[in-house]
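Homework help board

Subject: predicted structure for assignment chain

Our instructor gave us this sequence and asked us to write out the predicted structure in token form, then describe one feature. I got the tokens but I'm not sure how to describe them. Can anyone check?
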Amino acid sequence: VQLAESGGGLAPAGGSLTLSCETSGFSLNDYAVGWFRQAPGGLREGVSCMDTGDGGDGTTYYANSVKGRFTISRDLAKNTVYLQMNSLKSEDSAVYYCAAERYVYRSSCLNHYAMDNWGKGTPVTVSS
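My token output:
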């Protein structure tokens, strides 16, 4: 299982960025996937995930702080997961990671300890 994030960078407050997570070694139909972030000195927190693991029903989940602004999606043909981030705020600045796990129950895909497979992260900086 391999994951590689890209698309991070500098964006103005109110702007948009789209993160990509290229995956290999597994099927997106069999694994739940999620986006997480960690700001300097902060804890890793779940941003959004898709319950597409074993027994999952495809429900997408979002942290309250990003609901209505961020959208998770996937392209099965490209084995890629995306995070569209709109109306960015300075507090969205962090390193963003994607993760995948086959056996995770529903909204637990937002909990970082439930995910065993991680990318190396891509930094996002939002200037105010």
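Reply (TA_rk): Your tokens look well-formed. For the description, you could write something like this. The chain has a mean pLDDT of 96. That's the kind of observation they're looking for.
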